User: Fold these one by one.
Assistant:
Number 1:
Amino acid sequence: MNAQVQIDAQLRELSYAEAIREAMAIALESDPAVVLMGEDIGTYGGAFQVTGDLIDRFGPERVMDTPISELGGAGVAVGAALTGLKPIFEFQFSDFAALAMEQIVNQAAKLRYMLGGEAEVPVVFRMPSGSGTGAAAQHSQSFEAWFGHVPGLKVVQPSTPAEAKGLLLAALADPDPVVVFEHKLLYKMKGPVPAGHYITPIGKAAVVRPGNAVTIVASAIMVHRALEAAAKLAAEGIEAEVIDLRTVRPLDRETIIASVKKTGKLLCVYEGVRTLGVGAEISALVAESEAFDYLDAPIQRLGGAEAPIPYNPDLERAAVPQSPDIERVARQLAKGEV
Amino acid sequence: MMRDSQENIPFALRQFTPAQLREALRKMHLIRLFEEGAEESYMRGLIHGTMHLSIGQEASAVATCMELTDADKITSTHRGHGHCIAKGADVGRMFAEFFGKETGYCHGRGGSMHIADVKTGNLGANGIVGGGLPIAVGAALTAKRLGREEVTVCFFGDGANNEGAFHEALNMAAIWKLPVIFVCENNRYGMSTSAAYATAVKNIADRAPAYAMPGVTVDGNDFSAVAEALHEAIARARAGEGPSLVENLTYRWRGHSKSDRNRYRTKDEIEEWMGRDPIARFRAELIAHGVLDEAGAEAVEAEARAAVAAGIEFARQSPAPGVGDVTKFVHAEAAA
């Protein structure tokens, strides 16, 4: 490959879904132990067309359609991981993982510990997640905090195509179970994606817009809404620092604390239900840290409404933080109006 | 004439060498004595928590594992001490685990309900009823995908056959023709609820045809009957013909766990089943067919008794984990 082609490959744009597919193709090509499992991931290409044509390239033995058996299917993936395969199990919607909590929470997360370190479960669970598709209460939830509450699991939330690929490859390289929350509204989003194999480290957040007036910690689609808000605030002379969380468990304490020490203001934005959500944990870790002394205002949280995700589009939008909400609260924080 | 007399000899005595049969008897005694040793240690306060004893079910555990190698896998249940010993575990490390010691199979983190020995193919007991069923199918999937000549035996109880995981697991094993044998130890009660009340079919093996696999119900206290059923199921799995279900009808002499007051069954019923002691039956069979004499059988039992005493002593002498290590083993060391 000559230098010019390589540069083009570096600059090419892929969608979030294509980036995930490319990560899976790299994994399938480089490691015979990798198998994809899930409902309608074969010829159909997956509920959100993420596996796409992978069955044509790798065959039905490595891109396995499972019956509509979330508990059993997740358990088969756990048993396969325990004995030498590296399964990537796709749920059609993260909501359906509720059917498989037993295998994810009681088995996958705990096997290494229960067996005193004598076994490992290198399984990846992929979960299309979040609201905004008009699919209502059972197809729109954000369960990051559920899984983030379980020792033994790692939980990631990519916000861009490049992150989606890098975090999935990191999840595959990890010897322990990793739950990947992919936001459904991001699947078609395009962005530059490096070619070949690379890893976006689990447990590391990224400062995606530097600023000194207020820290906004966001994840998945909320990163884009926060950036949109930050751009508007910049026009008023308010420079917000936006942190893309990337990993819910383990949280990147250092990046968050360093930013709050700089800005003295913290706004947590997350799509999951506000109470006992990811932002509650981030608020607590800041309040308990040396950054507490640097706070110039009470910590603020914007999270999902205390309600199931509604069907009506206006209600649906109102149920999760939107860019104007972030802009309003960040402005109040920056101006000392909170 | 010769053929007839051969057929009167139980399957196990035709199939296995005298040394293998002697070892099987030793393991059955070892299980019984291990359980009694664990029970006594619990009463003396050396073991905390709870435990689920398998006294009365020894033939099912040992006969099921007769033809398995260390490469073959098992998944086990909350009543799994017997499976663990049958698959080849060391009782010293088992006792050490029950005593919560660092030398235990799980370094004191798992206890009775999570005891495992991955190196000998024991993927572990399970605290969740039915939890091991999909995992066993996954282990069989690995064997098939990687072209390993292994089978997986999935132990489960009569209670688990009403869990959704049972039905999902059997269906997937059948559609993918995986080398897994589902072994139901039907001891008649899921905690206090009888299988007769809780299960719509008369025999749990009757559920096998719904998943297009052979199902057979055998006397689980008859060593040879269990070994013969497993011989056929294992051969079918190794030949790539797919899964089978074997139902071993048996009985637990003790209660469900340490809190059981036995209010759901009668003393007569328990005594009737104690009269069908699988160890006494197998031992008498071996003596009747000249595999052992009475003194030889006594020696086998004495060997097991000595192993249990040594195991308890090993556990008592072993160090406990340091409390500072409470989060050790949550993740891989390098990734922690």
Note: The first strand of chain A starts at residue 13 and ends at 15.
Number 2:
Amino acid sequence: MNFRHSIMFVSLAFVAGCSSVHTINAEFPTPLVDPLQKTAFLDLPEEFTTYQFIQDEEDRGDITIILGQAHKNLFSSVVSALFTDLSLSPETADITLRPEVNAFQYALPKETGSTFYEVWLKYRLQATDADGVEIADWLITGYGRATDERLQSEGTGINGAAEEALRDIGTQLTLGFAQQADIENWLNAEMQQ
Amino acid sequence: MIKSIVHVSSLWLLAACSTVTVDQMRLTETNIDLGSDTVVVLGRQHSPAYEAEADLVTCVARELGQGAMGMEVIPDGQFVDALYPWFEPRTAPLSLARLETLLEQQILQKAIDDFEIRYIIWIEGNTETTDSSGGLSCTISPAGGGCLGLGMWEDEATYEASVWDFHAMTESGRISVDSHGTSYLPAVIIPIPFLARVQTNSCKGLGKQIQSFIVQG
């Protein structure tokens, strides 16, 4: 190994030491709820299923949080429980749901002076009928925290908080979906037809 | 010299113990069939101020399952997942009246009945470091390294368990535990910790008392 290679190796080691990549690989339980007698299509675009939160700030360091698979698991689980049937295309579904990530934020115990890692997630959920006409446009905010245990890595804390935040999104989606005014109006209109 | 070191170490070991006080308030009689009934231990999570540590909740559940009065304890994760999203931080019932309202949904009543739950035990509280003093300095040099000094800190734990009778839909009683202890970290070249196991002792005290409370009626 010559001098130039040594410098490159040390530089790579330095860069690796300042950045971190966390993959949230959570699975979620199927919600215990009476399903709506409707057929739904869950539209998950590629930018949603491959979503990564990438931060490059001097005072917080570089961090990448890979969330795509986890929120795909969550929405698949919740939507399959919310409706009696899932459709493979929007044309054959009563309703199409299209989620997108609106915001991702996190806070570390050393930043807040608390003993918790915290994560906030905001999703936008668009619902359209079989003709593509908008039924509802809903913003859902989820919050999760994980206790800062002794000798626990930062990654474990962020993963735990993100998983809790996703569960919170699932809770609100499950229990709040039919309560949304626009969805409620649509359901009532469908019942009258 | 060795005798002196052993003597001093013994003093530190004695000093690094904790005191535990357990109180109990019974509201109704309890009755459990250890052969068929089960219990579940859940941590309150609706506010950071009341949130019991996950390992404390697991420890209390383990204590309840041990010994001659050991009972079947449903793991909290299994229970919460099976009833998702009804026992999440945002939705978990804070009162029996709220639980009764939730159980009007047949799907939820059946899911809980499948566990044959007799008692739901809610735990809230936490362990925190209330004071610390002393100092420790460590150095590393090409010739070697070492530490010198004495650090000490005081931990205080306060937990309260509320026992809900799922059959009678009443609160059977409350058990609380207060524990405190001082830990020491003396260092002469190598730091040797003498830890007061405040949280562990709280768990054991709380677990044994809940077990006796439920079984001995």
Note: The mean pLDDT of chain B is 90.
